[in-house]
Amino acid sequence: MSKNIRLIHPRDQITTIISRIYKRGMTTTSGGNISIIDDEGDIWVTPSAIDKGSLRASDIICVKKDGTIIGKHKPSSEFPFHKAIYEARPDIKSVIHAHPPALVSFSIVRQIPNTNIISQAKHICGPIGYANYRLPGSDDLGEVIADEFKKGYKAIIMENHGTVLGGSNLTDAYERFEALEFCARTILYGSQIGKPAYLTDSQIAEFEDQATGVLPEMEETSFPSDEVEKRLQICKIVQRSCEQGLMIGSYGTVSMRWKNNDFLITPTGINRWDLDIDDVVQIKNGHREAGKIPSRATWIHQEIYNRNPKVNSIIMTQSPYLMAFGVTKSYLNVRTIPESWIFLQDINSVKYGAHFRKNNNSEIVDNCATALIIENDSVIITGDKLLQTFDYLEVAEFSAKSVVLGNSLGEMVPINDDQVKELREKFLS
């Protein structure tokens, strides 16, 4: 989706995002609905009882300001609460309602996920409201939801129902939706292996304060063919990471070494789903490409490249099963299957704050491991070729998932020392 979302028709915005939600397993064929209110006050909304997996722009309904319905289907049965939200909050221009499994888990035990589980979610999601149960599709439901939005919330847990979120545009609403579901998943998965630990507001504020400062701009930038090729590789891996649930739109940094210690890196402030080659930022001799703001983790990537000449690509992201270990301070033993140990050996963790610029970061950048977890923040994967680094990320996440799921069956029996010795002699000698 183009970053200039105002130039995309609401029908196309809605079909893009509902397809994304469906393919990521965050709604069902019949569940969920999305709407956008345009500058004329007309509301564009998904239709009722039409397959969310194959929705087309021509299926989207327009409910005019005067109540006239334009389209070949009926508007969503939940249209009343969409309309009520727009009437209650003129600053809200888009609404997403869905039944993603993790957030439904919270709604049926009548709890609100604590977004302090990871560093950036509090800022993205804001405080979370709670709407008591009312009959789906009823005016009563619209009233209780609108009442919550009137309190200033942009994200609401709906009792025994799901969630509803608003945004200044559809990208904003989706980032909030995706981040909140990620928090819920991380808490749930973490609870299966330990006790999730949460950041304090002051820790989050400290992260925001230290992550400031921008490199000086280059006076001139060249774009030779090998540089352009790496930009395309970065965009493809970011897109793939988002599609496979290994990255969310509001968080994730990918970089590739270009020449010597110069490199290319993803920007800050750009939704990862929408990343284009023009967004990628060139870093050369400690300067950034003019007119672009690189990731706030650029300094970590620069130090890794400076001190580790064999590292040529880095992925810094949040994936739910790896972060389950990151929020519980649990050790991820990757002696699960031979491939996991061969690729990763050991995955250690560092405390939250070790990634702050002002702190000693030797644990992260000196002799950096293939995979390292930063508690309540992210996982850093390093490698030679970018596709190889992405493979390591997949293997690490699959290993974490196996351990989390296996924990309900019994105690893990890892590959023993003799078996590890055989693997080391055959594959690493």
UniProtKB/TrEMBL annotation:
It holds the Pfam family Aldolase_II. InterPro entries: Aldolase_class_II_sugar_metab (IPR050197), Aldolase_II/adducin_N (IPR001303), Aldolase_II/adducin_N_sf (IPR036409). The keyword Lyase applies. Residues 12-188, 232-404 form the Class II aldolase/adducin N-terminal domain. It comes from the Bacteria. The keyword Lyase applies. Keywords: Lyase, Metal-binding. This is Class II aldolase/adducin family protein.
